[in-house]
Every structure is written in structure tokens, then in C-alpha cells.
Amino acid sequence: MALVEFDIAALIEASVNAASIDAGAKLVLAYSGGVDSELLAQGLGCYAKLHPEYRYLLVHVHHGLSKNADMWVTHCQRQASQYQLPIEIVRVQVNTGPRLSIEAEARNARYKAIKSLMDSGDLLLTAHHLDDQLETVLLALKRGLGPKGLSAMGAVQTFDGDKVLSRPLLSISREQIEAKAASLNLQHIEDESNCDDKYDRNFLRLEIIPKLKSRWSAIATTASRSAALCGQQQSVIDEEVSLRLPEFIEVVAHGSGTVLNLVLLGQQKPNWQALLFRGYIEQLGFAPPSMVQLEQLLNQLLHAKSDANIELKIGDMLVRRFNHSAYLSSINQDERDQVSTSSLEIDTATLPLMLDEAKSKLIKPKELAICLSDRKTLIITNALDRETVRMPQVDEVVSVRFSAVGSTRCRPHNRQQGRELKKLWQEYGVPPWERARVPLIFYNERLVCAVGYWIEKSYLSAKGSEGLLFLVS
Questions:
Q1: Which of 143, 165, 284, 423 has the highest count of CB atoms within 10 angstroms of its CB?
Q2: Which pLDDT score, from 0 to 100, does residue 187 have?
């Protein structure tokens, strides 16, 4: 390809066709105002005139990290008007601090802002080019990533679950883009941070890649080819993992979510153990661990003593083991699920007592809502023809507690025999960390209900009688 002999609108058309989006969908361009996104914006303006069946939007994210950010906004607004394309300016706050990558935090904030302006089926266009691909491959090597990381960026791929991301310039070099922009007399901004080699990408761009190109002029193209081959291999691996993984996943009894069966996983060869466990982690939406972290996780989960208390944290992921299963959760979510009190007494006057005794039926069910944590609420309502706790007597104090002595004797309504509480938790498959979050309903000092699990048999309301129904939402 000659240095400037390519048509941006034609590249965009090829991307749109490959994405197979519907008429009426929105084409959104991540528009920084730099030379590559400027060229893509100019081409999108040309393409839009020929394709009114789509909607269009330029999105410029103001990160607030540069003293020139306001001037960049003015530039982007002026250029958008020239291209006859609508534009949104989104101001974001980038997290900064020790051990935080400004590059990563800015990227996360940017994509979050862009996603907020997109709907299902929309297409996001980014101006990543051939040299960006080489940088991504080199960074993947530096981080010790496998085929998935080395496959780098795809020309067209799923984005945010129900959208598509396309990179029309991925086969075009930086030199070609700059020459094309110059031939069109395009004005663009220069981000001064691009000259700061403390950032990994800039170090590669300024110091390493020029030397590589001076020795091997086609290295960006050949690295992109290697990335494509890694992508093909990873696609096959992902497909095979997706076929096998369901055999190892079980739905949590009396709860929400899933667990990974460690007995079955332990029967696989080590390579498949790693692939399946990594696949499960990614299926739940967590960032994949490094090879060393994954080895440590598997070693702990599969080979630690059966009574060992396994609790490992990697990033925002919390990994626990119970009853030969691996439980994965978000650390942030786990903290939000912590109950805000150890016990509370319920004023019986506030309980829903709406029975029309003359007709022996409910006039109108009422609810009492009690906040347990940031994400959970205890709902108390009255009901007929349901398994409910009988109404409290005048001398019975009703309370909600979150712990009880393990030796407490219970006789669940759905079990033939009574057992100690600690044995029942095991029988119901309730992990130790969840037991302190189960609301326990007491009448005076008698445990009458473990919400979501059982009602004490002697406190079960008589058939056809009104009782209290306890639910967690």
C-alpha cells in the first residue's frame, strides 16, 4: 500500500459491514482529537453523508489531567461542526494514587463514559492502528500473558456484551495516518503527555519501536500477524472450554450464583485445570489472574487439607473453598453484604396483622421492610396457605439475630429429625461466611425460623391460619 493511498470512508464501510449492525444503530467514535481519531472523524463525516440509515456521535472525554484539556474540547467541538457530526463532551474524574496506573484508570473512566452513551446494538469506532497493535503485543510480552493477551486487539469484536467495537485503522501504520492527515490539511491536537516516557506505551513508542523498525521495517505487520494467529488459537481454546465448563459448574443450593466442583476439576490434567478455572473466572466477569496466581489458587483449592480455611484475594476477586467447591465473589460486593447489626428487636405493633377474622381471610397483605445491609432487606409479610411462622403471642418478644450457638437444637419443618444448628448448616450446604448473614427469627429466646431455610416445626402456622412470612430481597 502506498503511503497515503487508502480511503477512510471505505475502511469504515468495511468495518460496519463486518459488524453486521442494524439500520438505526448508532456509530459512536471515541474522539480524542489526536491525528488518528481526527482522520477517522473526517472519514466518518464523509461516510455519514452517504449512509443516513445510521445515527452518529463523536464522544470526547475530558479527563482533567492536562492544563490544555479545555482547549482540546474547543477544538473537537469546532471540528465536529465542520464534519457535520453531533458531539458529546463528557467530563470524568480519574482515580489517582499510589499503585494506580493513570493510563489504566483513564482508560477505564473513558470507556465507562462512552458506554453510558451507547445502546444495545450500537457500534463503537476507535482509532487504534498498526503501531498500537505492536505496542499491545510488546506490553503483553512484558506482562507474561498467554495467547489471549498476545492476540492483542481484534479488528471487530463484541463490546460490553451487546454492542460491537471496531478498529478500521488497525492495518494502517502511524506513518501512513500522519501522511494522510497532512495531505488533507487536517488540524489535530498534540497531547503533551505523549512525550512522557514514564508511561509504558510512550516508552515503547519513543524509545523501542523506532529501533525495532530501523532493524526490521515490517515488524509491526509481522507482529500483527502473530497476534492474529494467537487469536485463532485462543478462539479454539475458548470454544472448547465453553463446551466443557458447564459440567464443572453447580448452582448454589438455597442461594444465588454458582460454584465450581473441585472434585471433578481435580480429576483433570493440570493444563485443563488451569484452562477451566481461568474460564470460570472470566465467565464471572473477573480479570484473569497471572500464571503464578492461577497456580497458587489451584494448589490451595485442590491440595490444601480438607479442613483448611481457604480465603484468597486477587484484585477484586475473593476465592473461598467449602464442601469441595470453589466460591468466587467480589470483595466489594462481599463487604456490602455484611449485615449492619448483630441483632434487633421488632416492635410487634408494627407487624402486619391484617386478618379479617369474620371472613377468615386476608383483607390486604402488608409488609414490614428491615434493612440488613447495603444490598439486602428483610421483608416481613402476612400470608395464608403458605408455610409461615405462627403469629407471636402477647408475651413473646420478636427479634432478628445473626448468630446462634452451634449446639442449639432445631427441628426444621422440612426434616424428619431434629439436629444441632451447626449440623443443619452443613446439611443445607451453607458456607461458614454466609451463616452470619442468615437472619434468624427468635420468639423470646427460641429460634423459630432460619430465613430462607426452615421454620421450627412447633412454630409452623396451622393450615388455613394466618402467619408471618419472612423473605430476604
A1: 165
A2: 94
Q: What 3-state DSSP class applies to 469?
A: strand
Provide the 3-class DSSP secondary structure of residue 375: coil
CA-nearest of 255, 401, 246, 431 to 326 is 431
**pTM score > 0.85 for this model?**
no
Residues forming beta bridges with residue 326, ordered by sequence position: 260, 321
SS (H, E, C) 40-90: HHHHHHHHHHHCCCCEEEEEEEECCCCCCHHHHHHHHHHHHHHHCCCEEEE
Q: Which residue type, as a one-letter code, is found at position 334?
A: D
Residue 465: helix, strand or coil by DSSP? coil
DSSP 230-275: HHHHHHHHHHHHHHHGGGGEEEPTTSSSEEEEHHHHHTS-HHHHHH
Which strand (E) or helix (H) includes residue 330?
strand 325-330
Distance CA 259, CA 251 (A): 6
Cell 408494627, residue located:
350
Q: Smallest Cα–Cα separation from 90: which of 71, 68, 109? A: 109
Summarised one tens digit per residue, pLDDT across range 391-421 is: 888 888 889 998 888 888 999 988 888 889 9
Joined grid coordinates for residue 380: 416481613
With cell 432460619, the residue in question is 450
Q: Largest alpha-carbon pair distance within the chain? A: 95
Q: Three cell numbers at 29?
A: 467514535
Give the residues across from 382 on adjacent strands. 468
The number of beta carbons lying within 10 Å of the beta carbon of residue 22 is 9
Q: What share of the chain is helix, strand, coil (3-state, %, to 5)?
A: 40, 20, 40
Q: What does the alpha-carbon distance between residue 190 and residue 198 come to, in Å, rounded to a whole number?
A: 18
